[in-house]
Here is the input.
Amino acid sequence: MFEATELNIRNDRIQERFRYLFLAMAVVLIVPVLVILSLLVIKGGPVLSWSFLTEFPKNGMTEGGIYPALLGTIFLVLVALLFSVPLGVAAAIYLSEYAKDNWLTRVINLAIINLAGVPSIVHALFGVGAFVIFFGFGTSILSASLTLAIMTLPVVIVATREALQSVPHAFREACWSLGATKWQTIRKVVLPNAVSGILTGVILEVSRTAGETAPIMFTGAVFFVPFLPESVFDQTMALSLHLYTLSTQVTDVPENLPYGVALLLILIVLAMNALSIGFRTYLRNKKKW
Amino acid sequence: MTGMTEAGTPTDKRVVLDVEELSISYGSKSALRDASFSVYENEIFGIIGPANSGKTSLLKAINRMDLVTSGMKVDGHVRFLGREVRKWKNVFALRRMIGVVFPLPVGLPLSIYDNVSLAPKLAGVSKKSELDDIVERCLTRAALWEEVKDRLDSLGSLLSGGQQQRLTIARALSQNPRLLMLDEFSIAVDPVTTMRIEDVLKELRQEVSIVLVTNLVQQAERLADRTAFFLNGEVVEIGATSALFNGECSDTRTTDYIEGRFG
Here is the structure.
């Protein structure tokens, strides 16, 4: 009775086959990442240099560096963070700590899900309508950053809410039973223990914001400006839009140049992701309970 | 308010907590029905009974944690120091006068020092020397001072279970409460620490009234002056502990539970 039957053997063989099938599918995932990265490194690697990072484009964009675009992207991201982080964190605190399960909460949650699902080009049109025209900010860093901020708000809210929820409920109850108010509890116990999780979310937001093209191309990013922006009401160049125009709008661009820009963009995103993973690991190793 | 009818009632003592016809429900599910009892100054009032008897819900109703517990509905009267708790305008002041110790030790992820000094600080004590005094006094009363006095800066949440539970007792004492409520404090604590905490409670009885909810019948026998037996949301019997444990129960269910025939 301990002998394997015909059926046992066949089942075992089938299960092995499925194992390999699923493994193969999982391995396929790695392929596009490897291809994209190696292509970018091989073709764009030689372009990257100190002067590429610090010089203006020359000769109708076909030579020179990407300094104004790099700086523009950093500006856009920073101004976007200035709006989305306070707003998103405050909204998440409300939803996680104060909101009761009523129609208002459900509407807010629905809005967040929908906001996350709106295509970026639609955000762009909203940005044009709201910030460029209605509020009269014109095509400017401010308009573009506000558009980006609204687009990435769900990322901040969801990450913050998860970070807050990961703080055990027992801590809150213990604190309340000592006579602390909700806000005192949040400030002293909940937020300090959620801050690393919130930062992880913010970093992910940065990497997403840096790569977006559609929301900024109508609202504040331009093809070429010969000077650096001086205020948030100026237009600016941006890496993602620069890549787009280099590849589609400009003739006689040396083949390596757009690859260099793409490599730089992806390096920024990867660096941000690495930072966020590092944070999470740090958080896990530094358990406080 | 006098509760003269209850067996073993100390008539010469002041009532600290007076519960009258208290009912608690969650939606359509009833957790406690028509509970009435009083807790006097400087006594340990034991509450025994199997799980789902409404013991924890009772404690929540006393310090108004029902406000932050979704779906919890409270009917009837709870009077603390003679005043209806639902009419206290300031629930935070009420909670500061009632220390709570939870079943699982909840050391807040703060330093040991901050765990004990948090509540007084939030309530407005800002002088360092005053806070130092509170921390040392409360940790000493909770029999933890000697073990942690050299590392008050380390995280309270990383202490051992037994130490954390004594830390929560110190924290519960940090605002000189009039009432201390312990909810099955020994559930996650080793027997040696349990005995130490029991000794602490015997000392504390001199200065504070204690409601001791316990899953250990013998613990109630060792500590409580009077004991109430809760079963399925009903107060079956309240009496002097010595009487109940000498078989002078008016209800056979009490005898059965105390003698370990169920529960």
Chain B has ten helices and ten strands.
